[in-house]
């Protein structure tokens, strides 16, 4: 069994159709803790002791957020800046997070086709996430491929339902610890890995 | 005999201890409790005290002297200036007109003009103790009626002094106390007139000089010794000394005390003096009211029940009519005028002082004084009932109605938020919520404000927010949140109690004036308590930091962290506060708390100057170690 911490950041959740449903689906999965950062810190004053304590108690850290300007909302960055302290998360004595796993869970307005060399965003999602990947590595964590819900601008109810179902499956898989990180790391998206597993 | 003195003291104390809490419980106020206690132990009741009640009254009159000293201390020149029109206009006219009307009537009953004038002046007085207490409890002090009431009471308090000076001139009977006299054939009696006048002026001047130049350094020296009882003793000595000096030149001791109070009103020892002397005032006034109660002649009432009832109702009606006419003249709305004129319709505690003074000075005879004393006591006893009748019967029919009939159709659905009190605090909360499209229902006790809000189209209920029926009709059953933004902490607590009892589902947010209020509310189990000055004080601090050139974000963030730290310190102090009940005066407790707070500001590591994540100091250190 493994525990999962969802670091959720959305500055206007009340307007996000998809993220509301995703969060709702995640909230009652056993062993999953949802930490709603904008709700917790409306003033951006992050309680570092509380956050570090939360990190220590969990095996997986999911940064769940919409993609804003090819990155995360400001709160996620603030959280990283302040919580992952030198000497605690990284540096010679910073070993608190060693061996934990980190993953981005994202919604993007653009469709998957846009995120490739020939697409109008010119880079893949994975390339845009390089700073997160390197952050995880610097903190001696294992970085897993992201779980992405693409095309939320035009997504229909079936699409949302499917995404919600996939997210639940992902969380159940993670908490059941039947997740081979090394195997999963070969995929571009965590979504692909889930589909493969299901088809087996 | 010392034993009998002790016994008497025990009788008085026991009577007070038994009856005052009962009267308070019944909503009748402490003054009535004392009067009741006096009636019960008096010669016509259990007979536990007899004729010596008169002597006790003399001792207790010192309580009145102290009361005037405290009134003087409270008289801030600014407040006086602000209220000069209502005080002099409204108050002055009330005193003059009521005196004229009542004196006229008294003359018609066959009293000589001197006695009639005395009766008129005496019955003009209303009860500061009862009225201010009641208005405060009902949260009416900020309304137009509250301000007018305060002005009139203040003028009456001041008018006592010239009245005390005037009364001896009206003497027609021989002095009731021979030999020692009423305190007026004094040291100066043998001097020629002009020298007497000079001595009187000299004495007043001496009191002013004493207060201004002598007492401050004396208080400073005594305060620096840290011996509280000596400070109290010196304060009592000051009041007693001034009273004696005044008496010896033939002026009223109360006047002297008042003057010295005014002189010390701006001194740094004002609050210390107040909190130290106040218990004595309370006790002595209590004693005074008990002795008044015990001197009520029930035989007299039994003999002439109709006369007494007639006098009580007659004088209350007359006073109310005069007040109502003045209220209208001074542009009070109907509601406010009703509250104002009925609130002041009783005759107050000063009447007892003036009546006993008149008796001693041979202005009124025993029978008249007995009759009036009984009538005054009864009128005071009726005051809470008058308030109640006004609230339940008169205001709902005549004045602003509790529910807004016109608007209630527009707002058929009930609102999720109720804001109780739409004064300087509640109106911001209410406006903010409305601006965000959140339906709010307002409860307010100021009929003028209610009328205006209704005109704008806000759903407003008029009345005492702590009443169950009003809350219910305002939709408390369907609402989710109630914001209590009342001025009066007592009312807030009362409202909290009603809500917890009848509408337990409501989330309660309460405004607190200060730390002490916050503690009370936290004790009552309220989670969301807001000290009204906290946030704006911190914003002031932030701006000060920014003007000194500190970075804006640093200043803002420090304020937020400080607030968090302060709220934590508040709940910490709230839990240890009960151990600090040994602090007799709240002023002292506050100072002690401030000390604790300031030291916690310094020792707590509540503020990381800059979060380490934003500071590369430790990274630089590690890098340097590697290169070395």
From TrEMBL, chain A:
Coiled-coil intervals, chain numbering: none
Residues spanning the membrane: none
Keywords attached to this entry: Oxidoreductase
Domain of life: Bacteria
GO MF annotation: an example: NAD(P)H dehydrogenase (quinone) activity
Residue ranges constituting the Flavodoxin-like fold domain according to the UniProt record: 4-169
Keyword hit for Oxidoreductase: yes
UniProt-listed InterPro entries: Flavodoxin_fold, Flavoprotein-like_sf, KefG/KefF
Name listed for the protein in its UniProt record: NAD(P)H oxidoreductase
Native source species: Fibrisoma montanum
UniProtKB/TrEMBL annotation, chain B:
Organism: Fibrisoma montanum
Lineage top rank: taxon: Bacteria
Keywords: Antiport, Cell inner membrane, Cell membrane, Ion transport, Membrane, Potassium, Potassium transport, Transmembrane, Transmembrane helix, Transport
GO biological process: potassium ion transport; proton transmembrane transport
Pfam annotation, one family: TrkA_N
GO annotation, cellular component aspect: plasma membrane
Full protein name: Potassium transporter
Start and end residues of each RCK N-terminal domain: 414-530
Topology with respect to the bilayer: Multi-pass membrane protein
InterPro entries assigned: Cation/H_exchanger_TM, K/H_exchanger, Na+/solute_symporter_sf, NAD(P)-bd_dom_sf, RCK_N
GO molecular function, one term: antiporter activity
SUPFAM superfamilies assigned: NAD(P)-binding Rossmann-fold domains
Transmembrane segment boundaries: 6-24, 31-50, 56-75, 87-107, 113-132, 152-173, 193-214, 226-245, 281-301, 307-326, 338-357, 369-389
Primary site of residence: membrane
Subcellular location(s) of the protein: Cell inner membrane
Similarity comment: Belongs to the monovalent cation:proton antiporter 2 (CPA2) transporter (TC 2.A.37) family.
